[in-house]
Write a structure and sequence with these properties.
Blueprint (H helix, E strand, L loop, with lengths): L5 E3 L6 H11 L22 E6 L2 E14 L5 E12 L8 H15 L4 E4 L13 E2 L2 E8 L14 E5 L1 H16 L10 H8 L10 E7 L5 E10 L2 E2 L2 E2 L1 E10 L2 H12 L4 E10 L4 H4 L6 E8 L2 E4 L2 H7 L6 E8 L10 E8 L2 E6 L6 E4 H8 L5 H6 L3 E3 L4 H9 L12
Parallel strand pairs: 4-5, 13-14, 17-20
Antiparallel strand pairs: 1-2, 2-3, 3-4, 5-16, 6-16, 7-14, 7-15, 8-9, 9-10, 10-13, 11-12, 17-18, 18-19, 20-21
Length: about 400
Amino acid sequence: MGMSFELRPVTPDEVAAFVHTSMTGFGVHVRHPERLELEWTNHELDRTLAAFDEGEIVGTGRLYSFELTLPGGDLVPVAAVSWISVLPTHRRRGILTEIMRRQLDDSVARGESMAVLNASEGVIYRRFGYGVATNTISFTLDARHSAFLNPVPAGGRVRIVDDATAGKAFPEIFDRARRVQPGAVSRIPEWWSDQYFWQDDKEEGARFFVAYESPAHDVDGFASYRILEKWEANLSRSTLQLGDLAAVTPEAHAALWRYLCDIDLVETITAWMRPVDEPLRWLLAESRRLHVNHITDELWVRLLDVPAALAARRYAAPGRVVFEVADELRPDGAAAGRFALDAGPDGADASRTDAAPDLVLGVADLGAAYLGGVSFSNLARAGLVEERTPGALARADTMFRTDPAPFAMTWF
């Protein structure tokens, strides 16, 4: 590590210091001391890593055991990387690198074929083999121009619900929704109680929860939002800030958006971290009124066992591709080498091979294309994939295509 540091999981009595160091590394002051020790922060302490310098925690990282929804609907266990931080006093000493290496070793030892993360800085993680697999958009919509092309199907209803009702119903709805959304990661119970329903008394705008009930009385969707009040010359200039929206059916999705667009005294609707193919654009009579503020990376994927990962998902069309994958960080691992994929809509086989490669690429770029969020052809145009067999790029693009676009649904 460049200097002598102890690196190990934290014990229960070290959690507060662990969280404090992580928050300090992100430049955040903890307003509520009780936020240092929650069920969420105490979850899976055996998958935490803290770097100690003379007894002080100076670097942090942790893994969560999540499920990832693959194209085709299968679920696989993944190591979800989080809380990566180093105190400003201890940068450039190899702490981050050692934490990232140790996490990958832990994932391999547990039989996880891949690790995933959300990146605070985009420049850090590619060197550890992670590639951008999903993207999200943030957008603004003028509520005065939010008319739909067609009426929302009649019969269902949207209800405002209290925290207790939301706490019981929303996790079940989310679980149904994430199982049909490629790229979605699971939410453990502790995440809901400590991240979703926590109300910071210094946050602007109270949080509201709504649920959609179908004509058959099934609760098929939910949304959370805040109203940020603003008045000028006795006119409301308030903003609705969407927190979360998940729906099991198109009818629930449309009804929830119609409700949000029709709330009185709201001038502007803002949404952060929505899928790149958000259907709201196509519900609107004037689609250009949905103004995309920016598009950004969401889920990064790091393959650790290429044959297992390739065989786990399903493919849009049958075909065969031989990949030659470079993994500079783990050259002797199960993600480096030459692999043959024979796959289709009903399943896949993948194994090491001596056959000539069709496509040559790095492990980060195979991770980027794995969920279908970016095409191999696009990566090739950026100089990241080499086509050795004519037609292999088009064949791989067709096989890996995903609909809907992959979307993690959760920031962790």
